[in-house]
Design a protein that fits this description.
Elements lengths: L7 E2 L1 H8 L1 H8 L8 H13 L3 E5 L2 E11 L4 E12 L16 E3 L2 E13 L8 H17 L5 E6 L4 E6 L2 H20 L17 H4 L1 H4 L5 H17 L1
Parallel strand pairs: 1-4, 6-7
Antiparallel strand pairs: 2-3, 3-4, 4-6, 5-6, 7-8
Helix pairs in contact: 1-2, 1-4, 1-5, 4-5
Length: about 240
């Protein structure tokens, strides 16, 4: 179990899956570069992150819900959590390990929480977005004591919602990435650069300089070495 002081942001998992060096530049070195894609994403999340509750028949929608898991060492905020009213016979998960529904203050019945994450672009290959969503669900399961079998990703470019099942494989991958996140965080070191096709879409391409930095772990370390070399050359 982690303490409150050890909690790391849920959003860091997405950076970690995309590129460990990108994660280090943002979360170790504190670098960030806004581009069109990140600006659009920030604007989208600003619209959905405002804390409020909306009621639509048998669905109650909560925005900006705070999340925490002492088991995984995570904290953050969910874009949207939908609470779906359960019908008869839906009170427990198929395995019967945990209830599927929970009580809400001042509202009759039991309600199943469903996390929904909003993304600016289109669906991606790999686990990048699914891991972040699953981590939110794991936080809520710990906080609420319920089983959350699935959630959804909404992509702004396609205007479509895609269901995500939190199966055993995705849960294990998410938990392993949480462990990796804390392992890297404890070292305080930025992983080395390795150029790949995805680098061209990264907002930190200019700071990272993957083709030039090579084995340098910190971008600023590379810049200092360049300046030292230049100074030595001028002095000769």
């Amino acid at each position: 179990m982690f303490s409150e002081d050890d909690l790391l942001p849920v959003s860091a998992l997405q950076h970690l899956v995309f590129c460990e060096r990108q994660w280090g530049l943002i979360h170790i070195e504190g670098l960030w570069e806004e581009n069109l894609l990140t600006a659009q994403g920030r604007h989208l999340h600003k619209r959905v992150d405002t804390p409020e509750t909306e009621v639509r028949a048998d669905v109650r929608i909560s925005r900006g819900l705070r999340l925490r898991s002492l088991r995984l060492g995570l904290s953050g905020k969910a874009d949207v959590v939908e609470f779906h009213r359960l019908g008869d016979g839906e009170e427990t998960s198929p395995e019967g390990a945990k209830p599927c529904g929970m009580s809400l203050d001042g509202v009759p019945g039991l309600w199943r929480p469903v996390p929904v994450e909003y993304k600016r672009g289109a669906p991606k290959q790999g686990l990048c977005d699914k891991v972040q969503l699953c981590a939110q669900a794991l936080c809520m399961e710990e906080m609420m004591g319920v089983d959350i079998p699935g959630g959804a990703l909404f992509y702004w470019r396609t205007r479509r919602r895609y269901d995500v099942s939190f199966d055993i494989e995705l849960r294990r991958s998410t938990e392993a990435l949480c462990a990796r996140l804390h392992e890297l965080s404890k070292t305080g070191n930025t992983p080395g650069a390795k150029y790949g096709k995805k680098c061209e879409s990264c907002s930190l391409l200019n700071q990272c300089m993957p083709k030039a930095v090579g084995g340098h772990r910190k971008a600023k370390g590379y810049l200092l070495s360049v300046l030292r070399d230049a100074a030595n050359g001028e002095g000769e």
